[in-house]
Amino acid sequence: MSAHYLDHPLQPGDQAPNFVLDAISREGKIALDDFRGRRPLLVGLFRGLLCPFCRRHVAAMAQFNTALREKGVESLAVVNTPVERARLYFRYHPIPGLLAASDPERASHRAFGLPLLEFTENETDWPRKVGMDVVMTMRVDRPGELPEPMDPATAGDLLSEKDGYEITEADQQVRVPGHMQLIGQFLLDREGVVRWSFTEVDGQGQNMCRALNPEELMSAVSQVAH
């Protein structure tokens, strides 16, 4: 893993750094260099599985996986949940065919320039700090799951209650009180160069907890496929 951490997310044209993580979906390790020179790769860097939005992001990646593979693009979901805890979760919530890796230290997130966001009472310096006064004005819309667009904190509580996800000691180990890891998805070409991304950093917080646009993703994929 590169020790050089960026102060902004990787942008199209940037070379993605290598990382080596414990595989969740199989034994052994997964390295970004495993794909370099072979095929394009969609990398999803998410929070731990205790995050209800990230559980849904991973499930969505599993659904996209078949369509991406038909285009010659592999997918890799990274969660900062300890590997044994993540394996237990996916045993009951399968992600068939999707590669997944564990990064409890969030080293891959830092290497891709995704910051750890600090929550404050009313001081905002996006994307380093955000005031709760600002968070409460944000809206997350998940038709069919939420009764209406609502702030991320309330939405997260409702979704967690709906899921019945039991937070364990392993989940607690990766929590950073008063902070939240920002996340993103990066489409790399076969040489490991970023060609498209969707991150929570973009949009001054308007992307917080939002799902990516599948049409936008598939349009980007068509540019790097084969």
TrEMBL record:
GO molecular function: antioxidant activity; oxidoreductase activity
PROSITE patterns per record: THIOREDOXIN_2
Entry protein name: Redoxin domain-containing protein
Domain Thioredoxin: from-to ranges: 10-226
Pfam entry (one): AhpC-TSA
InterPro entries noted in UniProt: AhpC/TSA, Thioredoxin-like_sf, Thioredoxin_domain
